Every structure is written in structure tokens, then in C-alpha cells.
Amino acid sequence: MTRERILREQHFDLNFIKKYESLMAQGNGYLGLRASHEEAYTEQTRGMYTAGIYNRPMEGESADLVNFPDVAGFRIKIDGTLFSLLAGEVRSYERELDLSTGELRREILWRKSDGAEFRFLFRRFVSKDDLHLVASEVRVTSLDREARIEVVTGIDAQQTNHGSQHLIEKEVRVLDEDVMLGTYRTSQSGHTAALAATVAGSAAGKESFAAKNRQLVMSVKVEAAAGEPYVFEKKAVVYTSLDRDLDGRTPEAACLDALAGYAGKDYGTLLRNSAAKWTAFWRDKEVLISSADPFDQLALDFALYHLEIMTPAHDERFGVGAKGLTGEGYKGHVFWDAEMFILPFHLLTEPRKARQLLRYRYLKLEQAQEKAARNGYEGALFPWESALTGEEETPEFAAINIRTGDRQRISSAVAEHHIVADIAFATVQYYLHTGDEEFMKTEGLALLMETGRFWMSRASERDGRLVLEDVIGPDEYTEHVDNNAFTNYMARYNVEQALRYMEQFGAEDEAYRDRAEAFLERLYLPVPDAAGLIPQDDTFLSLPEIDLSAYKENQGSQGILLDYSRQEVNRMQILKQADVVMLLYLFPDQFPLEVIAENLAYYEARTIHDSSLSKAVHAIVAARCGEEELAYRFFREACLIDLGPKPDSSDEGIHGASLGALWLATVFGFANVSFEGDCIRLDPKLPKEWSELTFPLRYRGRHLEISISRSRIRIIRHSGPELHVKVSGSEAEWNGRTEISIDLFRKKAE
Ligand code: IFM
Fold first, then answer.
1. DSSP states of 357-381
2. Fewer CB in a 10 Å sphere around the end CB: N or C, the chain?
3. Which residues are catalytic?
4. Residues whose CB falls within 8 Å of the CB of residue 286, separated by 6 or more in sequence, listed in order
């Protein structure tokens, strides 16, 4: 029997409407559809996006992930009265996103102002079987009398990105009194988007079509008998000129072919095909937690669901945006979130997808080289925010100060350079976990060498050492600092690994090698001081401190910036997010455990966690330090970033990196897995609330399933060769078996 994986919304509440639109969004990596209600509410932000389709609203502005015409809206009138939850009486309401099948369902019992009662059942899904398909079903039952039901739906191109209209309407047509077809072109990037839809009802009704004000709609009117459900089914498809499965057709022709192919297939059949793909996903990737609080399991299910729908696994030209395809936050741009927080889940569950995400960067290497050259550097300087073209997409300015009228410049594009080394780090991890030589000796090595070249040109001389001046580390509350520890260690790793793989794959470049060796020898690395503290940068530890407790209580809100200017924050010991702690997470073997614990305590006390990338990373490091209680608290707080009670936490989309980090915290924190060549090490630190944790891992051709309880670790090797297993320091032998069980008290394999 399959386990229930359901995210529920029990009440209709306008205050939460945007949040749930994001949380309950559906998708398949090709397109993402926000969970807007079928009927209109001004507080909603309807949204449908396809990976890779961006457009600049104006010359010099950064590209927006284009909000597509809406196909999910239905206007329903009953005896001339518009159905809305703001009118009449809502007798019952429940909405659920079934994470097992990807279906969104909403059931409502509604009393019209004249006392007549109606039951509504809305269902829809974005197919995982056919990436282009969105299917919906609306079921209306008049419970106590005859009623005239009118349903209007179609393709609504009135959507904008916060007011910016990116799509030029090229053509709208109704074909064979059945198919609505709209063709649009993005105004600057020149992509074509075609959408087609058909609507069928369970009973014959009066149908008509209309096209006006960028809306192409069909209206169906039926006379409904009491107690009899009337069902309207809609199939909508989307193709764009970027699609690789056009097979020489125009996007319009591909839409029509797709709809023709669905003739005779009803909502249920199409849903079953899609749900079967979800079943395979959960079978291969599920993480099972036996926790005192079932919320932990829901949070992990939610994270995995979104990690899946945010990833454009069909096409390596597209990356994963910080909000996936669930909203317009950060304009759909790709950050280091992709390599450092999201990629590891794919790497250890379906490595092909990790390779695709790296290919996204590789395909944009030339633009990164151009950015480096423009800024006076060598090698590749990847953009802090990236979209389709690989150009720098970070907006120049952040919000305006409404008192002074000043616009706050965003410095990330000019100084948050650690992204270069983050991409290199992910490249090496990919190779270490897969042994994919074909990738590494070509694209991987090019990435490593060009990113390494950047660091060598980025360093400057000071007192006989090489230093990295004027950078922003992961912590964006300390801008323009010298020798950010995270950046320096990552830069060193980058150059070291470039050299290592040049040697391994026989890439001869003597000049590069000599320069790299000198760089590694002379680069300054901040080391723990007498108190064991690794200085976050050259000045951080000497800056003044303030009491942060009020801001920490309201973390995520960036409330500190209401009381202090950015420049003031910059000159105090205040962190937005994990910085040295991120370094400790990535390089646990480079520092003694006491140093890690000391730095975790010091920096956490000064971290507001205003970034969603912070909490789960703290959970990992705390767990490894044996502070399970603290780790669990961080983990839970990270779960609440999207799933917590704040009504507007996720209005502009889910927090992709934080969701990836929940998986990281589970596997690299609580299970405390690490790898060393052909050896897997486990030193579990389960929180006391968890009695068991089970998850799959792919590692160098092996498919493993790992179960950890308080007393025992069991590893099943579903496929692939044996590997060494070390549990809390002691080795366990497979002796030809496909399963081993280790007693955690006796530290002995059985
Ligand atoms: O990449 C992050 C950054 O670290 C903090 N601000 C938000 C970005 C996107 O999630």
C-alpha cells in the first residue's frame, strides 16, 4: 500500500493565498503552474512558466522568467451569479496537493446567497508523462434544485510579470469549433510560445467562443438537474520555439498534434499515466523518517517533490532558478543555490541530472569568459544571477529607499565571486561520485581550468602573500571584504583540483601549472586564531557587536535593515547566513572537531538567518558536532521557512536551496554520510525524535539503500560492486553479501 503524502489547506484565507499558490504549485521541470484558484481573486498571482523562456522588459534591465497565458482559470456562473468564495457562504473547504501523484484537488460546499447549495470538485495536474500537458477537471453538483451552470475558460494572455507584459499576441484561432489556439512572441528575446486547449463536458450544452482583450475563451452552458454532477474537462498544451521535441514542426503544429493525440483519453487516463511516473520517482528517491512528529516526513516529502518539479531534466540549456518554476521571485534566475544546495540531491539519487546542471554552466562558459575579460580578469567569471543566455542578470539596484529616493546598488554581480569556485566544487563532486571520465576530461576539465584561471588572475599581492580583496562571501551582510575565509578556501580548492585533473587527464600546460603551483603556495588562508576562531575575513572579528535577539526572533524578514543602513550592518559582526559555517560543512576534514564546534557557536550567535540558505547548513554542522538537539531545532526551523505559519513567507515562490538543504541535512547531517574513494562512512547522529531513517544513494555505479535506527545500520546493495563501509570509525566487511547489518553498540557487522 502506498503511503499518503498530502499537503493540506483546510481554510480559504486571502492572507495565505499567494503562499499556497507557491507551495502547491505543480510542474515537471518543463513548466511550472502556480496553484491559483480556478476563480479569480485580486490577491492571487496567477503564474505559469516554462524553463528557459526569459525576456527583458526594457533595454538594460535583467531578464524575467516569462509569465505565460493562463489555462487554469475557470469563471463559473450559477443562475447568473458568479461563483466566488467571497460571496455566499463557504460551508466546507479543503484543498490538497497529492505529492504522490502530483494532483491538486479542492472540494467546496458552497451556499449561494439565495440558499441553494452546490458542491464543487476541482482537480488538475501538470503531466509528468507528457511535459507539455496541463489537464483540469471541474465537477459541479447542484444539491437541491435545478440550476443553469455556465463555465467560461480558455487561454488568458492578460498575465504579466508584475505589470510587465512580455508576450506579443500573434494569432488566436478556434479550429473545428473545438480547439482554441493562441500564438505569442516574447517581445525582446523573440521566442514563440503556442498554447492550445479543448474543453469537453459530461452533458451537451450550449457552446460559444470569443476572443477579446487578449483572452480566447469558450463558454459552455448547461441546465443541471438536482443531485447530478456536471463535469467539465480541459486539456491544455504548451510548446515553445526552444523545445527540442518539435521535430521540425512549429510550436502551434506541435500543440495541435498533441491535442489530437489525447482524443479519447479522459482526465483519469491522463492522470494515471502521469501518476505512474510519480510512483517511479518515489520508489527510487523516497526518504523515510520514523519521527515522533509526522511533520518531519511531510517536510521531506515536500522538499523532494519540489526538487523534482524545479529541475529541467529535459534540457541542459536551462538551470534551476532559486524559486524553481513556482513564482517570479529573483526573476527566475539561477544562483549558486543550484550547484551547492540542489545538485547534490540529484548527484546522489540520479547523477544524470547533476551532469545536466553542470552542462548548463559549461554551455555558458564563453559568456563567463567574456564577463571575466570585461572586468579585467582571466578565465571564467560566472554571473551571480544567470538565465538563458549566460549573461550577468543581477539587477543593478535593489529596493528604493522611499525616504531618500536613493536606490541601493546590488554588489553581488561585481564581488560575489565565490560562485565561480562553487561551480568548480560541484564539478569535482560530480566526478568523485560518478567516475564519469568522459565528462571530466572534456567539459569538467574546461570548467575547472577556466575557473581556476580566474582565481589566479583575481588574487593580488600583499605583504608577500596572495590575497583576495574586495569580495562578498556567502554572508551578504558583509560586503566588500578582504580574504573572506569561505572564498579563499574555495578558490584554493578550485585551483588545486584544476591541477589535479589536468595531471590525471594529461592536459599539458606548463605555464598554467607553474602559475597554479605558485598560487597554491602563496595564497593566504585564514586559519583558526588562539581562541580557535577562523576569521570570516580580515576585519570581521574586530568589528563591534550588538544584541541581535530581536532580529533573530524575526529571522527571514531582514528587519535589521529597517533599523540600520546596509553600510552600518556591514561594519558590525552581523551575519545574514552561514559563511564560515558553510566552509566547515564543505571541508569537515580540514579542521579539528573542537574548532568546528567553536566556530559554529561563535558565528551562529551572530547570524540572524535572514537568508533561507542558512538554517539547514547549521543543522548539518551541528549534527556532525554531536549536538543533535540543536541540529534538530535548526532542521525544524528550516522546514518552517516554507511550511511554517507566516502568511507571506513564500509569496514569490518556494525556497529551492532551503528544500535541497533539508535533504542535505538528513543525509550529510543526521545520517552523517561521507565518502572517501570506494569507502562510505557513516557516523549517524539521529535526533532523539527519530527512531529510524531510510534513504537511497547512488555512488560510483552502486545503488544502495541505507536504514539507520538507534541500534543498527543496514545497507542493502541493490546493484553495483562492493564498497568499504566504515561505521563510526570501524570497518564492516560485505564478504560477498548484498546486505550488511551493523550493530551500533558493538560496532560489528552481522
Ligand atoms: O543565492 C542566495 C543568496 O545566498 C542569498 N540571497 C538569496 C539568493 C537566492 O536564493
1. HHHHHHTTHHHHHHHHHHTT--S--
2. N
3. 476
4. 301, 304, 695, 696
In a domain, 677, yes or no: no
Continuous H helices in 262-364: 267-285, 295-310, 337, 343-347, 351-362
Contact by Cβ (8 Å): 717, 739 = yes
The tally of domains found in the chain comes to 3
Nearby residues of 57 by Cβ (< 8 Å), 6 or more positions away: 64, 161, 164, 166, 188
Q: Is the pTM here over 0.90, yes or no?
A: yes
Question: What spacing in Å lies between the alpha carbon of 337 and ligand 1's midpoint?
Answer: 7
**Are residue 194 and residue 305 in the same domain, yes or no?**
no
Residue nearest to atom 4 of ligand 1 (CA): 474
Same structural domain, 604 and 699? no
Closest-lying ligand 1 atom to the alpha carbon of residue 337:
1
How far apart are the two ends of the chain, measured CA to CA in Å? 30
User: Does residue 204 have a pLDDT over 80?
Assistant: no
Looking at the structure, do residues 603 and 473 belong to the same domain, yes or no? yes
Task: Please choose, from the candidates 735, 619, 743, 737, the residue with its C-alpha nearest in 3D space to the C-alpha of residue 671.
Answer: 619
Instruction: Name the domain boundary from 670, 705, 738.
Output: 670
Classify residue 745 by burial, with Cβ atoms within 10 Å: 0-12, 13-18, 19+: exposed
| Shared-domain flag, residues 261 and 309 | no
**Ligand 1 pocket mutation, candidates 487, 613, 642, criterion most atoms within 8 A of CB:** 613
3-state secondary structure of 226: coil
The pLDDT > 90 percentage for the chain reads: 93
CB neighbourhood size of 49 (10 A)? 29
The Cα angle at residue 323 between residues 297 and 366, in degrees rounded to 5: 125
pLDDT digits (tens, 9 = 90+) for 674-721: 999 999 999 999 999 999 999 999 999 999 999 999 999 999 999 999
Substitution site in 611, 641, 659 for ligand 1 pocket (most atoms within 8 Å of beta carbon): 611
CA of 476 to the centre of ligand 1 (A): 9
What's the CATH number where 241 sits?
Answer: 2.70.98.40
CATH of the domain at 649: 1.50.10.10
397 and 521 inside one domain = yes
CA distance 148 to 153: 17
- For residue 71, how many other CB atoms are within 10 A of its CB? 26
| Ligand 1 center from residue 166 Cα (angstroms) | 25
Which of 656, 622, 615 has its CA nearest to residue 636?
615
Q: Is the CB of 652 under 6 A from ligand 1?
A: no
Is 683 contained in some domain?
Answer: no
Residue listed under C-alpha cell 560485505: 734
Question: For 377-422, how does the pLDDT look when each residue is reduced to its tens digit (9 = 90+)?
Answer: 999 999 999 999 999 999 988 877 777 888 888 999 999 999 999 9
Q: Are residues 369 and 243 in the same domain?
A: no
Domain hosting 553: range is 286-670
Q: Among candidates 601, 598, 596, 574, which has minimal Cα distance to 585?
A: 596
Question: Which cell numbers in the block locate residue 633?
Answer: 531545532
| Same domain membership, residue 290 and residue 275 | no
Domain end call among 284, 316, 334: 284
Exposed/middle/buried for residue 703 (C-beta within 10 Å: 0-12, 13-18, 19+): middle
